[in-house]
Amino acid sequence: MSEFTPARLEILHAAAECFMEQGFHATSIDVVARRMGATKGRVYHHYPSKVDLFFDVHRLGMDLLFSAVEPARHAPGDALEVLAAMMKAHALAMFEHHAFESVVVQGVQLHRFGALTPRQHQELEALIATRDQFEALFKEQASAARRAKLLANVDVSIAVKTLLGGLQWSLIWYRPEIDDSAKNRERLAEAMVRTLLLGLAARA
Prior knowledge:
With about 200 residues, the chain is an all-alpha fold. Helices cover about 75% and strands about 0% of the residues. α4 (about 50-70) runs antiparallel to α5. The longest helix has 30 residues, at about 120-145.
């Protein structure tokens, strides 16, 4: 897990909102500073470039996902119930940290940043590795469910990418200002997981 000072956390929260609303290319250090009501020098004191700032927003977004999903891996129940608990935890984390997780999804296009310094290239590789590690948690659990014959004989890699993609799509349609109560979030998360795991077809 990464550690951030209070000063950096304040910048990251403002930056996450800006990146979510305007995207990477339209967001500048000036835009983030105005969101904070601060000078851009205050941001530059901690982050030498917009890319570095984006990387830390992405890094914190991934930390928040791991913090949510790791405890769910030890939920009671069989392998499929644990997978469902992990998916629900993932969904709830996206609802709660909407701006940060929107940046994580934007990060799928990290390779489009263009020219990066050698240090930034190393950080980019580390971020990609972290995303792979997160996906691997779900692949491991889905494989356990398949071995227990609780899951169909599917391609686990494709299945997990589809499940995670279905959850992440909520970042497009979910509106925190409308569905901000804990009860609504629980209901939405459970409905999403149930739909993704059980499907829509009627069964005898």
